[in-house]
Specification:
The chain has about 280 residues and is an alpha/beta fold. It folds into two domains: about 50 residues; about 230 residues, Spore Coat Polysaccharide Biosynthesis Protein SpsA, Chain A (Alpha-Beta Complex), CATH 3.90.550.10. About 40% of the residues lie in helices and about 15% in strands. Strand 2, helix 5 and strand 3 form a beta-alpha-beta unit.
Length: about 280
């Protein structure tokens, strides 16, 4: 996995130090101590803020043939100290993923099994229908994206400034160096999407999309595969009276190779082009 965003790394180190120095403090109590030490401005920039009472985060994880990574991804999600539920939707995996998921089911983890392989978009639709949290975040079932960045991703929503947050890999501080043409395609698709939506996103194709649950309520999503990304972006942009408030937050990124299990390909890029036009004008 790539190095964390420096702000996230600093906040994590401070929190771990305080846990060791004053064990037994709750998350709001640790935030209060750090605010006295560092000041409110520095804490806000580092993503150190109190989680409101009664708040719950819904983490939706679509899974397909991820037996190598899924247990570790769940462990890292659970390690984030935010009240949460995990909705893991298995898209008819053919490897040993389902056997692993059986050992993870229960508590704040809910496993939903698709009877046939339909794609990421279909799995997310299913996952969203089971969410009960105040805020929903999409988490891929590999190690390309770091759950430790959840606090900064949800911060604009918790503070009442945003309804939707995208985590951008292109304004982040670290990423694994991989495929040049993938980055070109991502930027071209984002630019084309922006031309239709009049948003100024830098990373429309990012996995890390975070929503107030109300944003998803009543939204009819149709894409079954990776067309989910341009579709939901178009439908967010088309909201009227008032428009959804959209923020971007820099994130780290550790992309994987096709040998390591990467699934998106050239066909999906052409599908995304089609979806950008279709879902802005015709749906």
């Amino acid at each position: 996995m790539a190095s964390m965003n420096p702000a996230v790394e600093t906040a994590t180190a401070l929190d771990q130090w305080l846990r060791h120095a004053q064990p037994g403090l709750s998350q709001p109590e640790r935030v209060a101590v750090l605010r006295r030490m560092l000041g409110e401005t520095a804490c806000r920039q580092l993503g150190i803020f109190p989680i409101p009472d009664g708040f719950k985060l819904s983490v939706v994880i679509p899974v397909y043939n991820e037996e190598r990574w899924i247990a570790e991804v769940v462990r890292r999600v659970q390690a984030v100290e935010i009240p949460k539920e995990l909705i893991i939707v298995d898209d008819c995996s053919k490897d040993g993923t389902r056997d692993i998921l059986k050992t993870l089911d229960g508590g704040n983890v809910r496993i939903v099994l698709q009877e046939r392989n339909q794609g990421k978009g279909a799995a997310l639709r299913t996952g969203f229908s089971h969410c009960t949290g105040d805020v929903v975040v999409v988490q891929d079932a590999d190690l390309e994206y770091d759950p430790a960045e959840y606090p900064r991703l949800i911060q604009p929503i918790v503070e009442g400034k945003a309804d939707v947050v995208y985590g951008s890999r292109f304004i982040g501080d670290s990423h694994r160096v991989l495929y040049f043409w993938h980055s070109v395609a991502n930027r071209m698709l984002t630019t084309l999407s922006n031309m239709f939506t009049n948003l100024n996103l830098t990373d429309m194709e990012t996995c890390y999309k975070v929503f107030r649950r109300e944003v998803l309520t009543g939204m009819k999503l149709r894409s079954n595969r990776f067309g989910f990304e341009p579709e939901i972006t178009a439908k967010i942009a088309k909201k009227r009276g008032p428009a959804w408030r959209v923020y971007e937050i820099p994130i780290s990124y550790s992309g994987r190779t096709y040998e390591e299990g990467k699934k998106i390909g050239l066909k999906d890029a052409f599908t995304a082009l089609y979806c950008i036009v279709r879902y802005y004008f015709f749906d």
